[in-house]
Amino acid sequence: MSEFFYKFTPWDSMTEINHRNHKEKDIILKEQIFDEETKKKIFKEIKLSPYDIGEIQIYFYAYSFESNILKLEIDDKQGFKDYVSANSGVKVYRDGLRIYDYGEKSNDWLGLDIRRVNRPGITISNNQLIGYVMLNRSQSSALVEKSNREGFVENEAYEAFEKAVLFALQQFEIQRNIDKSNLNDKYVSKRVKEPVIRRLSDLRETIETKVKDDSLKLDLNREIARIEDEYNDMIETFIKSANAGISLGVAIHEIDKVVDELNRSLDSRSNQALDHAQDLAKRLTELVKGYSMLLRSKDTGIYDIKAIIKQALFNVDFRLKAHGIQLISNIEQYQSSKLKCSRSISIGAITNLIDNSIWWLGYKEIENKKIYVGLTNEMANYDTIIVADNGIGYTIPTEDAIKPFIHGRPTGAGVGLGLFVANQCMENQGGELLFPEFYDFDLPQDFKHGAITALAFRRKAK
């Protein structure tokens, strides 16, 4: 894709939200397929160059039908919905002449409504979208019209063309979901901005100043303390469950790599290979123990931060090697430092950040892939773990990346919970998830343009 341009234009009455533009160039077109040989989902490049299709220009316009949004500007809401519905769908034109019956309600040629059923709220349906695909007749001879003039012959060129249009729509959806989330936050759901704990604290102050009966005041404060404890337990359970769920995929990949290596060693049958197999079997046992640690219900305590990092690196060691990724770390340069945290949650957060970097380095086909996992005390009163890669950096604004179900991956390649859960992990432990600039910390030059994420743990008072 030579150029992608997205523009979000809120109404003048939307004073709580800003215009937003996003540009990208030279995006590699890819589709997710099931590889029969490896029995896994992989990404394969969509190639248009073998076919005479020529330049494709695509225009998408998406609309929200939320009543709380429409009432800000639209008087005739039903009339507006009817207008969009009458013109909805993705139509195809060649030299300005429409190719029927693409864009008709009877022809969901991109399968948008099925995608919407499978992933509601993330993908867009036909009735919300007005789209135009523009072709040049002299350049698109590989797209042959049917004799009845109802669409193109479904040959290999047409299949590549359809996949390319759907890929463009996926790029549009990624950006649209960012603004859709912001719109919903401001004008639809009116989500509570203050954390529950802070509101309970405010309630304590109100009781202190307005309740005169000491016995009643004591009973109310006890009840609030009980609610606070139960709420904290609920949040920790949620974070552990979500963390374990996300880490399960990482664990399966890592264990799969070790098992493959173990099978190869056993097939060789040489003494050296059998010794290696024995070491792998021991490693597999330790690996399963390491991941089972993420499921422990109560493990908050005082831990060595270096030991936590080493366990996270052990959990992904084989995956890094299998993907040809060089690991760079500075943790041996630092003395051991104790911090109060949940060991399983912290290991899970580090593992998820590394897994995110592994995925993007592979998807963007970065040469000489590298990941940095380092430790620094450059932030006053904090021990900070930094995870960085030598990729292209975050593809969406980081303030949006920590929201649930918002991510920059193609549709179906993730659910968008990794950074959200990592952020919740750190907040729950009194720390912070940060997205520093390259010069904020002393980092190797290789990571200047990549994604940089920091887990800042408040240092334990001596």
UniProtKB/TrEMBL annotation:
<dbReference type="InterPro" id="IPR036890">
    <property type="entry name" value="HATPase_C_sf"/>
</dbReference>
<protein>
    <recommendedName>
        <fullName>Histidine kinase domain-containing protein</fullName>
    </recommendedName>
</protein>
